[in-house]
Specification:
alpha/beta; six-stranded mixed beta sheet; 10 helices; globular
Length: 291
């Protein structure tokens, strides 16, 4: 290696847009926490220790995740240092966190504030913890990554392998029972409901899990198995079982899943379902008998 060359080159600095987005969302979170502390004194100590006492979003979320995921042998201080080191050094990680916060606020009508998501949305928290576990996995710190996986599963009832790749602006809505396998890939602006499985088909090794395109919506209880591709902007109906590729901007429903409009000329939609969260508009075209 030539003299002066870094073994691990430093990432480029964050863009002005990413920095402005992070500053805006953090300012909103602090303002919301102050408001809630004033209106509900019982929460004041919790809000101060988790949000208001911290100088940045990275420090706040690292503190919160450390307290959530600690155990008698995996101390909160150790986890805080681990998370903070990851978030402070990797601005892409912070940008993904900000995008996820914005996704929850925009797509979930039950999300009343950014601070509510940061503090209480286990799908959001599980996703941020998995992003750090993914970095550890890629750094060959796999025992620690798997230990985090175990704690995430225990605490949040969400099982996302640390090797799985997750994009930005992802919403795990409710999130209970979500399972994402080792070689799965989830694109940007995807929305996934509870009890969704992105799994394999048995004991086959290698690249064996689904690839989810940008802007996809996966309804509650859907199961997608094998190394199949769900096209950009596709919609998977609740309870569906998908075993084959799904074309972009189409809707698949049922067990086994079938394309609305048929295989040869499936009906395509214009909206991005991962952002619109439209679960049911296809029903009128799926069947003339609606219960």
């Amino acid at each position: 290696m030539p003299a002066g060359e870094l073994r691990h080159p430093l990432p480029p600095p964050p863009s002005d847009h990413d920095r402005e987005e992070e500053d805006f969302v953090w300012a909103q979170i602090k303002a919301e926490a102050r408001r809630d502390a004033e209106s509900e004194p019982a929460l004041a100590s919790f809000l101060y220790s988790t949000i208001l006492s911290h100088s940045s979003l990275a420090r706040s979320i690292s503190f919160h995740l450390g307290n959530k995921l600690c155990s008698s042998t995996l101390l909160s201080t150790l986890l805080y240092d681990l998370f903070l080191g990851a978030f402070e050094k990797d601005h892409d990680l912070r940008a993904a966190t900000v995008a996820d916060l914005r996704a929850a606020r925009a797509r979930d009508p039950a999300c009343v504030s950014f601070s509510h998501c940061l503090l209480n949305y286990k799908g959001f928290l599980a996703c941020q913890a998995q992003r750090v576990a993914h970095k550890l996995w890629n750094q060959s710190r796999r025992p620690l990554a798997l230990a985090l996986l175990s704690r995430i599963s225990d605490v949040f009832a969400v099982d996302i392998h640390p090797a799985a790749k997750i994009g930005k602006g992802v919403l795990f809505d409710h999130a209970t029972g979500v399972v994402v396998g080792e070689t799965a890939v989830i694109g940007n602006n995807v929305s996934i409901l509870h009890h969704v499985t992105l799994g394999g088909t048995g004991k086959v090794g290698g690249d064996r899990h689904p690839k989810i395109g940008d802007g996809v919506l996966i309804g509650a209880g859907a199961t997608i198995l094998g190394n199949v591709r769900i096209g950009e902007g596709a919609k998977i109906g609740a309870g569906s079982v998908v075993l084959n590729d799904i074309p972009p901007r189409t809707t698949a429903v049922g067990n086994p899943a079938k394309l609305v409009g048929g295989k040869e000329k499936p009906k395509e939609h214009e909206e991005v379902p991962g952002e619109s969260m439209d679960h049911t508009s296809f029903i009128n075209e799926w069947s003339g008998y609606i219960i």
